[in-house]
Fold HTH cro/C1-type domain-containing protein.
Amino acid sequence: MAPNPQCSALAAAKDKKGLSYSQIGQQIGLSEQRVIDICTGAAVPTTGEFNSLAGALDIKSAPPSDSAHTRV
């Protein structure tokens, strides 16, 4: 079973779209593991990855300004 996203908004968007991590990766040109790492907080996405992921999941709002969403 795939791990749950760290961000509740990301989890909700992923569930709403009904996409697997693999399907998201295929859509945005990333490996399934990279998508999992980004979604679970194991890796910080580049700006391009972040924007692609948000687009694939139809996320329109900016992430909250808390420790789980800190950009490096």
In short: The chain has four helices and no strands. The domain at 8-57 is CATH 1.10.260 (434 Repressor (Amino-terminal Domain)). The chain has a mean pLDDT of 83. The radius of gyration is 11 Å.
